[in-house]
Amino acid sequence: MPDIEIDLPPSLASQFQQRRSTVVAAAEAAIVSGEHDAVQLFAEHHFEDVEEWPGEPPSSPADVLSMLKLQSIWGEEDYVVLEFGIGEHLSQYVIAVSFDSSWKIKDVEMES
């Protein structure tokens, strides 16, 4: 996974590395599930407002979601947040999927 910023306390970093593929897959599934209003808002906003896409522009809000890439992983002792974005050159906004200390999804939000 290229250029992903990781900022976790050492004890949490070790736990995350053991669960990394499962946690990332759960976050990605939550994003495409259609269950979170923030994700739909992100997709619609960027589909309508980004004017200069590199390469082929998306043909629908769902295409915007397919462009999301994991950008950063950060947290504290009792939570971890995975941030997915379409690139800082296109948007300052990300989809943040937060996990509690038992590695269950706590929230999915759009953040800047």
Give a description of the structure.
The protein is an alpha+beta fold and 112 residues long. It has one domain (5-111). Helix content is 38%, strand content 29%. The protein is built from 3 helices and 5 strands; from the N terminus they run βαααββββ. The protein has helices at residues 10-32, 37-49, 61-66, and strands at 5-7, 69-76, 79-85, 94-100, 105-111. Strands 1-2-3-4-5 form a 5-stranded mixed beta sheet. The protein is elongated, with a radius of gyration of 14 Å. The protein starts with a strand and ends with a strand. The model has no long low-confidence stretch (mean pLDDT 94).
In short:
By secondary structure, the protein is α+β, with helices and mostly antiparallel strands.
What are its keywords?
elongated, 5 strands, single chain, 112 residues, 3 helices, alpha+beta
Describe the SSE topology.
Layout: E1 5-7, H1 10-32, H2 37-49, H3 61-66, E2 69-76, E3 79-85, E4 94-100, E5 105-111
Parallel strand pairs: 1-2
Antiparallel strand pairs: 2-3, 3-4, 4-5
**Could you tell me how far the N terminus lies from the C terminus, measured between alpha carbons in angstroms?**
22 Å
In total, how many beta strands? 5
**Element-by-element helix/strand order:** EHHHEEEE
Quaternary state of the chains: single chain
Biggest β-sheet strands, sense, barrel? 5 strands, mixed
